Amino acid sequence: MSEMENPKQIVEEREKEALEALTKENSVQGLTEWKNSFLSKKSPLMQLMSLMRQIPNELKAAYGKLVNDARNAVEKAFEEKMKKAQEEALKEKLEAERIDLTLPGRSYSQGSINPYWEIVDEMSDIFASMGFDIVEGRDVETDHFNFELLNVPKDHPARDMQDTFYLSDSLLLRTQTSAAQAHTMLENEEKKPIKMICPGKCYRRDDDDATHSHEFGQIEGLVVDKGISLADLKGTLELFVKKMFGEKRQIRLRSSFFPFTEPSVEVDVSCSKCGGKGCSLCKGTGWIEILGAGEVHPHVLEMCGYDPKIYSGFAFGVGVERIAMLRYGIDDIRRIYTNDVRFLKDFTEK
Amino acid sequence: MKISWNWLKQFVDLSNTTPEEVAKKLTFAGVEVDAITKMASGSNLVIGEILSCEAHPDSDHLHILKVDEGKKYGIHQIVCGAPNAKKGLKVIVARTGAVLPEVTIEASVIRGVESDGMCCSLRELGVDKNNLSEEQIAGIEELPSDAPVGEEDVLGYLQLDDTIIELELLANRSDLNAMENVAREVACLLEQKPMIKEYPETMQGKSAFKVSSLTDKCPLFGAREIRGVVTKPSPSWLKNILNAEGVRSINNVVDIGNFVMLLTGQPINMYDADKLPEKSLEVRDDYAGSFVAMDEKTYLLQEGDLVVSSKEKPMCLGGIMTSQECAVTPETKNVIIEAAYFAGPSIRRTSNRIGLSSESSARFVKGLNPSQNERVLQICSALMVELCEAEEVLRCETYDVMDHEKKIIKTSLGYLNARLGTSFSLETVLEVLQRDHMSLKNVEGESFEVEVPPYRIDMSGEADISEEVIRLLGYENIQSKLPEVSTSQGGYTEAQKNRNAIRRFLRDNGVSECLTYSLVSEKLKDSFSYLTKGENYHLLNPLTEDRQYLRKNLLPSLLEVAAYNFAHQEKDLALFEVSDVDTPTEKGRHLAIVLLGNEPITGSLHQRPYDFYNVKGYWEGILRLLGLNENRFRLENLQSEKEEFHPARSAKIYAGRQLVAVLGELHPNKIKQLGLGKSNAVAMEIDLGALLEMKTSPKKASIPPKFPSIQRDLAFVLKTEVAYGDVKREISRLDKIIKNVEIFDVYEGDKIQKGKKSMAVSITLYDESKTLKDEEVQLVMKKVTDMLSMRFNAEVRAA
Q: Any CB–CB contact under 8 A between A103 and chain B?
């Protein structure tokens, strides 16, 4: 093998050749192919080192540096270009992944809650936080618990087949959650103090219309201890009303009648819409009737095993649907039992 | 009870108050006021006289009148359609510009004839038509011939310038069905003394008539024989009162009965003495047979109905209505007046059964003052003498086995203040009770006795006294406080918390909470009855066929909700309800879920049809929430002939032997029958009560493993009918270092032999005591693959 005539020229030519070819490639693929032809072991540039044998010994070092420099220059040029090409390619790829940002998001939908349950939950939470037990009675009751023990005598019109659904001579569907009063007192064997509410469904033999329903919800409350007076009732209901209807609400008591309380009162709350000035919601009175209450009748306490000379108590009863209808402006009680999802969708519990 | 303001004025000084003010005071004292209405109203009214009455040339019923409206207004021409318009008649004229309850009068031209004003009927002035005769309703009011033409205070002249306060009486205040007692109540509220009129005793001797009772349901029966009465129209003062009270005036005799009832609350009954079969009246409850009442209708009476008989023949359906046979007529000369006490419940039962009630029966039902019998008869007699020219008043011996003991209640200031939460002084309390017509006795220190007036039949104990005090002094005197009750802490029980957590979990996962009726139809009562079986409670007295059974399962009701919404174009639904269920043999609490149509992934854009695994997912979520391990439950094919659930996509879940849930896709026939078209419908019903009662072990923190765990994936092909649950169970129990088995792929389809499916599971291996060596893992994995091929004939593809 003869000596190379002008090694420097050869190195420069091959470098130039490679760099020129590189300028033509811009894509990752083109660059990869270029790399395969110009930077592979068999490529002319890479082969330069193997020409070392033909270089006179005294020039070998210089030649080696020449070749290395050329190779480094080419590799550097390639890497720069490849990096740029890859960046470009990623950019393009991401651009191609562009989506329509205005399409709807994935549904993590919240189910609605029937306003009946919303009111029951909210009231239960309030009274639970005030230390009341939440008692659950049954829909099927005996006339003894539903009437007798609540001071409703045998011949009272409310006990007629006309007003009450009977299952047998002595079994009926409870007409009031007040039935839970007697249960709680009688079943409290040690006759300890009582502080409870009982939410539940009640039944009356009413034709269904906008304001009447043969099934409806009530929440009964009962507190029994020594020295419980109307002042305790008033204080408890004031606190409840403020939590349920807002800080600014006030209550007033009007004399009324229930067989199982004496004195009995109707409780009005100042109208939340007009604040008491009078509007269509409160029919111009500034007040809305929301519940019935009173001091537990001594005879009821006595029948349920609490000595009325020692114990006294108060009781109250709220209509669940009435509160829901007032609060949400629901025009017809039947809507609550129809569960039209277009109606339900507005109610979600916080 | 209606209160005539004008009548009330005879008892109480109302000059410084208004009907509205009195109504408000009554309301706060526990007497609800239903309405305040004017008896009649109208402006620009005047009394006129028809000077001429000619037929309208262009009409077959209209008249053209010339009406003299007095000096001030002169003569006007009025076109009038009343059939009774005639020359010389004194009439009420509403002059042009008059405002009547329903119309404003304007000058007009009626069929070419000018008309200036209108002649009125009382109906047009707003008088309740129930108080008017047919003639009065059909035509214009015919005023007496001496009516002063030109008089402008027409309502005053007619005694129609009255206001009616209508009371809605609560059950305890039946005493207010009497005007005298209303007057006492109003006087008390206005801090006055009522003026109760006393009537002279006119009795002249004893009657030969005997009265008695054979039943304890009539413990009191008083009567008087009034001889020689003359029937004629009542005087105007009486007519006006009855009119205002909404009672039609008939004649003096009948009107006296109604008047005394309104005044005292005691129903009065009258018999024509000469038509009674013998000189006796006997109350009995053993009569059965027909009875022709005064309304000319025949009623079938049975034993238990109270009957006033004479010679064993029914003369009156006690407290409800007299018989046709002996009712007083305008020809009656001699009258027996009855004032009795009939037991309310008995009257109510009879009245409800035969569908006949009256003002009188309503008063018996609500309860009467039992101690005013003699006085009531005295008032009747005096009025009979005054208004009916009665010649003789004779007294029958009263039958009276009633307890008339005075009600005396002992109480104390301390008791009252403690019960009410007030700090009234003794003086205040005693003063208000006296004003409330209670007599006070034996006041010693803070203790005293209260004698209750006999008409307050609602009062029996100390608590009643406390109510009188507070209702009259006002509830605003109560100082609010919160009860200091020494109970346990209160709040929710564990089961209540869990139930609420489940409800919230379902709502948070897109299921809406419903409330449906518990009463269902015959058709629904046995539908979807898997959890609770057996007989339903059946109402003895249902209102409608649709609501006659108490449901024992919830799915039928919830599916009805789904069908309702589907029919209203809401076709993708997720609904649930928690409710108690009751049957004669079981009490429980169920949770039902219904999923219909598609699960919204991105609204309606991307949807996935609901399937079995949606409800199963909710089931698993509920178990996790309650901390119940799935291993405690056993899942089986539902296998039902009922075509309610899809036969191959439905399951029963047991806890031990107890069925606790049914779930699955619905049968296509059921879906169609429910009117749900071809939707997907999936449903589940859970015995929530049973789940909530299951014991859970106390929660413990999971400490992350000390040594690394190893995961191996395994894919294999096996027959389609092999259940994953079995595969998982068998793998899990092969070795104690197998800690978890989870499926991550299952495939059935074109790329695999028919009748086969491929499954891929991920197995987690871990040893608590050391780091697992590769050989140990391989040994266990070998055990797994061997077992799969032996037990399930599986072909392992990749490990």
A: yes
